[in-house]
Automatic annotation (TrEMBL):
It holds the Pfam family Complex1_LYR. Residues 8-61 form the Complex 1 LYR protein domain. It comes from Osmerus mordax. CDD domains: Complex1_LYR_ETFRF1_LYRM5. It comes from the Eukaryota. PANTHER family: ELECTRON TRANSFER FLAVOPROTEIN REGULATORY FACTOR 1, GROWTH HORMONE-INDUCIBLE SOLUBLE PROTEIN-RELATED. Belongs to the complex I LYR family. GO terms for cellular component: mitochondrion. This is LYR motif-containing protein 5. GO terms for biological process: negative regulation of oxidative phosphorylation; respiratory electron transport chain.
Length: 85
């Protein structure tokens, strides 16, 4: 596969794998889902379609980062602020 986007796809996979370590349902669950998603699209050769898939993966990265940030924010809020009832 001499596709110039190959490195970008591998980088995306590694970034998602790294982010999946803190996934709420567990890293094993995330890793299996990630592998299935990448294997489902392994035969795609059109550079434009690959670009769209990479962009979707980058969107997922942003969503995961937001999820983790909110989880940490909620934990900090519970520890340091009193309930507002």
């Amino acid at each position: 596969m001499a596709n110039p986007l190959r490195g970008e796809v591998i980088k995306l996979y590694k970034n998602l794998l790294y982010l999946g370590r803190e996934y709420p349902k567990g890293s094993v669950y995330f890793r299996e889902r990630l592998k299935n998603a990448f294997m489902k699209n392994k035969d795609v050769t059109d550079p434009e379609k690959i670009r769209k898939l990479v962009d979707r993966g980058e969107f997922v990265i942003k969503e995961l980062e937001a999820l983790y940030f909110l989880r940490k924010y909620r934990a900090m809020k519970q520890r340091y602020y009193e309930p507002e009832h």
